């Protein structure tokens, strides 16, 4: 049985961890290096770092913070935000990232996925999909959830896999920060459409939401931000709840 992964996500803007609701109303929550180090020591299976303003500001991901964070975490570390070229991917991997996430640039230039996967291996390439529900289905949103591309999110997930992505980071814009639970329908739709691992993101408000998404969908991992950053619940509490519900989970504190 596949071990499910619990992943804290650090959304970073101007050097600080931030969190909002539906991708807006951001508030500062702490230092990314300190928080990542703490999560690494306290049971996180992976850590994701997203420089959420890099694309909108037309700049590269903050490599110095990535380097400092990579030196202090001992679990797989994914970095995204502002990734536009193969040089950006190279720079982040050299800075210590284990995987690189791409979103807006991959939509604009899907060959970036192929080029990156060919050079570094699909296992290093995560395509982030921010999806919002419209009358005709889920659309891919880019530029921090602010631009509707009109592209069908399910079909885009399939294209990303075909282009060489090794994993999908799927965020529901509709449930992001709402804390009422993951978007189960969207998550299962994407899981059913691809063969690569999918990370569910957006909407977690309590440990039960993790066990729910693991039991009701075939997602490989689930991600949360607010409940960890605000010390509402610990990674250990989430894992204990998952275990109690029969979810195959790695023990907190064991790599």
TrEMBL record:
Subcellular location: Cytoplasm
Reactions that this protein is recorded to catalyse: 5-[(5-phospho-1-deoxy-D-ribulos-1-ylimino)methylamino]-1-(5-phospho-beta-D-ribosyl)imidazole-4-carboxamide + L-glutamine = D-erythro-1-(imidazol-4-yl)glycerol 3-phosphate + 5-amino-1-(5-phospho-beta-D-ribosyl)imidazole-4-carboxamide + L-glutamate + H(+)
Keyword Amino-acid biosynthesis belongs to the record: yes
Residues in the signal sequence: none
Keyword annotations: Amino-acid biosynthesis, Cytoplasm, Histidine biosynthesis, Lyase
InterPro entries: Aldolase_TIM, His_biosynth, HisF, IGPS_HisA/HisF, RibuloseP-bd_barrel
Top class in the EC scheme: lyase
Pfam families: His_biosynth
BP GO annotations: L-histidine biosynthetic process
A GO-annotated cellular component: cytoplasm
Keyword Cytoplasm part of the UniProt annotation: yes
The protein's Enzyme Commission number: 4.3.2.10
Molecular functions per Gene Ontology: imidazoleglycerol-phosphate synthase activity; lyase activity
Active-site residues, record numbering mapped to chain: 11, 130
Involved pathway(s): Amino-acid biosynthesis; L-histidine biosynthesis; L-histidine from 5-phospho-alpha-D-ribose 1-diphosphate: step 5/9
NCBIfam families: hisF
Reported function: IGPS catalyzes the conversion of PRFAR and glutamine to IGP, AICAR and glutamate. The HisF subunit catalyzes the cyclization activity that produces IGP and AICAR from PRFAR using the ammonia provided by the HisH subunit.
Family from the record: Belongs to the HisA/HisF family.
Protein name, UniProt field: Imidazole glycerol phosphate synthase subunit HisF
Gene: hisF
């Amino acid at each position: 049985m596949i071990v499910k992964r619990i992943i804290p996500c650090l959304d970073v803007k101007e050097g600080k961890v931030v969190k909002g609701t539906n991708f807006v109303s951001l508030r500062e929550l702490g230092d990314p290096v300190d928080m990542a180090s703490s999560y690494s020591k306290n049971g996180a299976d992976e850590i994701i770092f997203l420089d959420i303003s890099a694309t909108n500001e037309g700049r590269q991901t903050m490599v110095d913070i990535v380097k400092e964070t990579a030196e202090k975490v001992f679990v797989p570390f994914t970095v995204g935000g502002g990734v536009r070229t193969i040089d950006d991917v190279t720079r982040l991997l050299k800075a210590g990232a284990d995987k690189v996430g791409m979103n807006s640039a991959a939509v604009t230039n899907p060959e970036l996925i192929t080029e990156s996967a060919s050079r570094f291996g699909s296992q290093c390439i995560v395509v982030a999909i921010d999806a919002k529900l419209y009358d005709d289905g889920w659309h891919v949103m880019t530029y921090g959830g602010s631009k509707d591309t009109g592209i069908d999110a399910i079909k885009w997930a399939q294209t990303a896999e075909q282009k060489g992505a090794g994993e999908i980071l799927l965020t529901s814009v509709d449930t992001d920060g709402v804390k009422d639970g993951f978007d189960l329908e969207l998550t299962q739709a994407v899981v059913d459409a691809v063969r690569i691992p999918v990370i569910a993101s957006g909407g977690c408000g309590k440990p039960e939401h993790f066990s729910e998404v693991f039991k009701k969908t075939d997602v490989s991992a689930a991600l949360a931000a607010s409940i960890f950053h605000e010390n509402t619940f610990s990674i250990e509490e989430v894992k204990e709840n998952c275990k109690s519900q029969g979810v195959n989970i790695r023990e907190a504190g064991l790599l």
